Write the structure tokens for this entry.
Amino acid sequence: MRKFIIGGNWKCQVTIVEEAVSIATEIAKEINDILTENVEVFIAPSYNALYSVGQVIKGTKLKLAGQNMYFRDKGAFTGEISPDSLLDAGCEYVILGHSERRRIFGETDSYINQKVKKALEKGLKPVLCIGETAKEKEEGQTETVIQTQIENSLADIPQEQLNQIIIAYEPVWAIDNKFLNPDSEIKTATPEEAEKIHVFIRKLLINKFGDNVGKNILIQYGGSMKASNCEGLLNIADINGGLIGGASLSAEKFKPIIEAAIKLGK
Ligand code: PGA
């Protein structure tokens, strides 16, 4: 039986609490009864809606995630969000090192590493995002970029906490983001392209953390995953789920991806 984790990353797309509550209500209604034990689903609304969405999905199988987090508990850090605030809202997961954080807001691997450690210390499951840009891909740098991101972002993590980590491989060129990809056409990785990198990541994790841990870390694919392409991607052995932006913004678009995971997980 394969295990999948499907995440909805709402980014800064749903700005009004009422709207977030309505989408979450619809998603919970559509998927709660069909979700199986081996498919986990989380949604990551904006901070303003975290608590309300948390209340909506409380008692359902849906999980809540933060989109980012600071690596200190509290203090004079204007504009940041504390891990305790995420926990208070009901979060179980936190997305860290998303390429929009790295490329637009200048987050570095060592900064992200501190966040990963803090999340683990607090009992939040980090979804660590990695991925190369179109330029890095063209220059044949993909594997080097990914290896560096993994090694630095996961430096000095206690062995017993490693099984809490999820990796999201999100090639930047595949993310539906005109800001990050102003000059290139955005296209989803083909199953072959994605498979090559997922196999590479799996080997890297096994080399770094040993068979036991490395084989079991879930690796999501992200970047324009949607109903029409999800099955081909999720079918690949080392793709253990998806991190979905645009196609997680309505139950209608999100549900078919979850259904594909349920089908493949049987
Ligand atoms: P997308 O975003 O599905 O809209 O391409 C994915 C992500 O950035 O997590």
Q: What stands out?
A: The two ends are 6 Å apart (CA to CA).
